[in-house]
Every structure is written in structure tokens, then in C-alpha cells.
Specification:
With 303 residues, the chain is of the alpha/beta class. Strand 5, helix 4 and strand 6 form a beta-alpha-beta unit. The protein is globular, with a radius of gyration of 18 Å. Keywords: Hydrolase.
Length: 303
């Protein structure tokens, strides 16, 4: 807080129309879901973003991601819905995945009652939240249900394997590193090795046929993250399956950088990149950020 004040940056939460917790039916009982609405919402329904927070299936709550969800409302004009899924070790896999899928299905049915447009729902998440967002899209596709219009995957976990060069190069990174990732896996899956290969969490082995038709995808990675190689490979496999996918890599920042827009310029850039992707998908880009409906933007690296 003192650093923000010294730099002349705002310290109050970004203003939105409303932010309230509601309960929705879930597979393990009622789920708490936080709903953020934009200022001045009236008249026509607005788009909706379902955002799934990270934390290794163990840590964090919606309170920890409040600042980003508020920023997302402001930057997109959308309603943002964030489920408080069940956490390990009390609730191991697949509890959290089931909660996220149930929340999305509830949202499809009830978006209108929130003032949202059920035909313009996007999904996204960070870390394991990105894993659950991607898994939700895959399960919806397999079930023949309507898909989100876009997905956003920030520093995603896409396989339970110790995958790629980044697992070595960022093995001692902070806050997420190989030992912490292994500890989270141990508690989230409680040593049940079969669960580690479940296609809802181990996404990389999915076939091109299983990926074809998934929604336009933005993947955000960093070069000091053990999960970077997974994110890059997931983007490549989506593209190979014909999915409109693009990636943006941010240099010299760590796994959890994305929520630090108040103090980190690259985080603010990344949040705007996410908002632009969503505005493109919603067809409501402002004149200053006008985009056509054509191919996704080229991958880029921001040093």
C-alpha cells in the first residue's frame, strides 16, 4: 500500500456496479460464486466472463483475485463470475473440476437473470484455474453442449508431467517451482496416480480430433515459470488442431505476475491483452482497439 502511495498509484479497489456472493447448486452442495457487474448496466444484456482463480487446487480464494476481476469488468464491460470451488486436501480431484463445470452450466442457464447474454460467455483462468477452464471447454465439447466464445489461459498447467525445458530452467523460481508444484500435486491428488492421467487434468495427450472446434484461445506465459513449456506446447497443439490460438510471453516476471497490475507494468499490459482478446470475441472492441473477426494475432514476446 505504501509503495502505491509513493508512486501516486490508486490504492482503492476499482469501482464496479456491484460485487456480491451468491450460491448456486454444485455437485458437493451449494457453491459460492462471486458476481461482478459493470457500472451503469441497464438495457441490453452484456457479455459474461467466468474466471477461475489459481492456487494449486489448495490455496487462495476469490478475495485474492478481487482486484483483477474488477479490472476485467472495467476493461470489457462484461459481467464477471468467479466460482469458489472446493479445495484440497479436504476435497481432492476431481472436486474442483466438477465445481467449475457445474458453475459454467449454471451460468449458461441463468446468465439472463444476471443481466448477461448467454450467447456471449467466455471462460478463463490462471494456473490450475486455467487448467480447469480448458478442461471445462473439453468436457462441454465432448458432451455436445454450447462452448464459450473464447478462452483465456494465463500461465496454464496443461499436464501433470514434469514437462519441458522450463521445468528445469525455472526449477528454483519463486513463488512456483518444482518442489512446490510437487507438493500441490501430492495434496490435490492424494497419491492416486490414476487421477494424474485423467484427461480433465492431463490435457496434453488429447488428440487433435479432441481439440478441434475449441474456442479462440489466448495463452499468456512467462519465462520464469515452470509451466511455460506446457503453455507453449498447448498453444501449438491447439493451432495444429485448427483452433485459433495465440500466445503472449512476458519476460523477467514470475508465475504469479498477472494479478500485480497495481505495481507491475507488465501485469497491466497482460491484463489489457486479455481484455482485448475478450472484446474481440464479444464483437464489442472500442474504436481505439478495433479488430476484425479474422485470424488471431501473431504470438509475441514482451521482454
Amino acid at each position: 500500500m505504501e509503495i502505491l502511495q509513493q508512486d501516486g498509484r490508486p490504492t482503492d479497489p476499482e469501482e464496479v456496479g456491484s460485487a456480491a456472493d451468491i450460491t448456486v447448486p454444485g455437485p458437493g452442495g451449494d457453491l459460492v460464486v462471486r458476481v461482478y457487474k459493470p457500472l451503469g448496466q441497464a438495457g441490453d444484456p452484456v457479455p459474461v466472463v467466468m474466471w477461475v482463480h489459481g492456487g494449486g487446487w489448495i490455496l487462495f480464494t476469490n478475495d485474492d483475485y478481487d482486484a483483477f476481476c474488477r479490472a476485467l469488468v472495467t476493461r470489457t464491460g462484461a459481467i464477471v463470475v468467479s466460482p469458489e470451488y472446493r479445495k484440497a486436501p479436504e476435497h481432492v480431484f476431481p472436486a474442483a473440476h466438477e465445481d467449475v463445470l457445474a458453475t459454467y452450466r449454471w451460468l449458461r442457464t441463468n446468465a439472463t437473470g444476471l443481466g448477461g447474454d448467454p450467447s456471449r460467455i467466455a471462460i478463463g483462468g490462471e494456473g490450475v484455474g486455467a487448467n480447469m477452464a480448458a478442461a471445462t471447454c473439453g468436457q462441454l465439447k465432448q458432451a455436445g453442449e454450447p462452448l464459450p466464445v473464447a478462452q483465456v489461459l494465463v500461465c496454464p498447467l496443461t499436464t501433470t508431467a514434469q514437462y519441458g525445458a522450463s521445468m528445469r530452467d525455472a526449477a528454483d523460481a519463486r513463488p512456483l517451482n518444482r518442489p512446490l508444484l510437487s507438493w500441490m500435486m501430492m495434496h490435490a491428488f492424494r497419491g492416486v496416480t490414476d487421477s494424474l492421467k485423467d484427461p480433465r487434468v492431463d490435457l496434453l495427450p488429447l488428440s487433435a480430433q479432441g481439440l478441434a472446434g475449441l474456442p479462440p484461445t489466448l495463452i499468456v506465459t512467462t519465462d520464469r515459470d515452470v509451466l511455460q513449456s506446457q503453455g507453449d506446447e498447448w498453444c501449438a497443439r491447439l493451432e495444429a488442431a485448427g483452433v485459433r490460438a495465440t500466445s503472449v510471453r512476458y519476460g523477467a516476471v514470475m508465475h504469479d505476475f498477472f494479478g500485480l497490475a497495481a505495481v507491475l507494468d507488465k501485469a497491466a499490459q497482460a491484463q489489457e491483452e486479455v481484455a482485448l482478446h475478450l472484446r474481440q470475441a464479444f464483437g464489442e472492441a472500442s474504436a481505439a482497439h478495433a479488430v476484425d473477426g479474422g485470424p488471431m494475432r501473431k504470438p509475441k514476446v514482451i521482454g
